[in-house]
Amino acid sequence: MKIEADQVEILSGVRFGRTLGSPVALLIRNRDAANWTGVMDAEGARSAEAAARAVTRPRPGHADLAGALKYGTHDARDVLERASARETAARTAAGALAKAFLHELGVVVTSRTVAVGGVAASEDEAEEIDALLALPDDAPMRAISQATVEAMIAVVDDARLRGDSVGGCFEVMARGVPVGAGSHVHWDRRLDARLGGALLSIQAVKGVSIGAGIEVAGFGGREAHDAIAYDAAKKRFTRPTNRAGGIEGGMSNGEIVRLRGYLKPLATLPRALPSVDLVTKEPFSADVERTDTIPIVAAGIVGEAMVALVLADAMLEKFGGDAVSETRAHLDAYVAALRAY
User: What is the C-alpha separation between 313 and 305, in angstroms, rounded?
Assistant: First the structure.
């Protein structure tokens, strides 16, 4: 919401614009918290205001019902405030640090809006990484074609007028990831598994595709895989296609890492779905909290943060080092060895 300015305060771990190697603590003050002090008070007895704003009619598609049953509460506000996607503000802040670290290693991460409802961007835009990086932070959709942006906005406006929400798809791309990040011998260190889990951890993301991961299920083997070539001038193995999304056998293969997150329509609806009261067990319409029509741009930015965090971790596993300069030196030596292979 516009009330949230999301200014980040750095509390520790940074001096004169450089990280120190100690934990970096970041604080984002939720400006809306002042309006909820009586409802979410950490001490004292339950107030009349808190009782009046209790959530007893769980919203289908949310954590409300399962969380209330899991923790034995009849007020799902105990659950929904922590389950809210608002917590991804902290992930995005941490992801910015990971992106800065990756940038020092020659890796850039960006995202694009693939689809909103039935409106899809051109697949050609997936190759325009520099153009996507140049999009302003307040771009209404992370798409390059103005006609596509306008068509996507029209879908959102139509859903909003109907009191409904709409789903969509975003794609995160990481350029410059060297060969060999991840593992083919440890199931819990496979890069595709880690990235897939990171994107699925984002609220409302119900599916993840790596490269042409969903489409290739209907392909034959000769159509599904990327042929291997060798560029003698650059002394590197190349691929004319990237259906694998930059990952083979749980490891990066030197191509652009590509992942798509499929976003379900948001579950809080102005025209609420049927539900049942947790206390009386009588049928009611679900409670309505603050919501949006589709957070597709924000989802892509959170996706960038999660991909950056996983890739930064994988790069440190591969190249180590206590300082960025040391990690970079290890990476450069590795790349030189690959060219001499």
Answer: 12
CB 62 within 8 A of CB 78: no
Tell which CATH classification among 3.30.930.10, 3.60.150.10, 3.30.360.10, 3.40.50.300 matches the domain 90-339: 3.60.150.10
Query: Do the beta carbons of residue 166 and residue 156 sit within 8 Å?
Result: yes
Q: What is the dihedral of CA 89, 94, 96, 99, to 10 degrees?
A: -140
Residues with Cβ within 8 Å of residue 19, at least 6 apart in sequence: 13, 97
H or E, element range at 305: helix 296-319
Distance of CA 34 to the CA centre of its chain: 28
pLDDT tens per residue, range 81-137: 889 898 999 999 999 999 999 999 999 999 999 999 999 999 999 999 999 999 998
Report yes or no on whether pTM surpasses 0.70: yes
Q: Are 295 and 204 in contact (CB under 8 A)?
A: yes
Q: Is the pLDDT of residue 290 over 80?
A: no
Decide if 91 contacts 305 (C-beta within 8 A).
Answer: yes
Instruction: Render 152-167 in DSSP notation, one character per residue.
Output: HHHHHHHHHHTT----
Distance of CA 127 to the CA centre of its chain: 20
The one-letter amino acid at 336: A
**CA nearest to 281, candidates 65, 71, 61:** 65
Total count of residues recorded for the chain: 341
Sorted by where each begins, the domain ranges of the chain are: 1-53, 54-83, 90-339
First and final C-alpha spacing in the chain:
53
Q: What tokens appear for 63 in the block?
A: 């954590």
Taking CB atoms within 8 Å and a gap of at least 24, the contacts of 115-119 are 115/168, 115/169, 116/141, 116/152, 116/155, 116/156, 116/166, 116/168, 116/294, 116/296, 117/152, 117/155, 117/156, 117/159, 117/166, 117/167, 117/168, 118/155, 119/148, 119/151, 119/152, 119/154, 119/155
